[in-house]
Amino acid sequence: MSNSQFFILFEYTFFYNGLKNRGNANVCVKFNIFNLSVTMKEFFDYLVKNLVDQPDAVDIQVVEGENGTLIEVRVASDDIAKVVGRKGRIINSLRTIAMTVGARFGQRVRLELMD
């Protein structure tokens, strides 16, 4: 998917909440497509591929279940550390984004990094 196609699918509005000294910033993501599982898959595919050195090895699966939606992220073994980040900050940020977007649509969404 090219960048132009990506931005057609998603409309981003990034805004700064004025707490510059604290380093806090709010991010608002607006999804314009009604099929949440396809949208989430493409969104996290785009994010994770831009984090890793081997973007061709990235595989994102969205599994719908009784307890909500599970996003399974698979990357090359060399790139696992890049997705996890120091002290798990990057993976926790990705999980927060997934939960926030899911809550917006009234669904429980979990993100897991698979081996």
Structure described in brief:
It contains 4 helices and 5 strands; from the N terminus they run αββαββααβ. By secondary structure, it is of the alpha+beta class.
Keywords, separated by commas or semicolons:
two-stranded antiparallel sheet; alpha+beta; 27% strand; 4 helices; GMP Synthetase, Chain A, domain 3; globular; 115 residues
User: What proportion of the residues form beta strands (DSSP E)?
Assistant: 25-35%
Report strand order across the widest sheet.
3-4-5
What would you call the shape?
Answer: globular
Number of strands: 5
Alpha-carbon Rg, integer: 15 Å
The largest sheet is: 3 strands, mixed
CATH topology of the domain at 35-113: GMP Synthetase, Chain A, domain 3
How much helicity do the residues have? 25-40%
**N-end to C-end Cα span:** 25 Å
Mean pLDDT score: 76
How would you characterize this protein structure?
It is a single chain. This protein is of the alpha+beta class and 115 residues long. It has four helices and five strands, in the order H-E-E-H-E-E-H-H-E. It has helices at residues 3-9, 36-49, 80-84, 89-104; strands at 10-15, 26-31, 59-65, 68-74, 109-113. The strands form two sheets. Strands 3-4-5 form a three-stranded mixed beta sheet. The chain has a two-stranded antiparallel ribbon with strand order 1-2. Mean pLDDT is 76; it is low at 1-27.
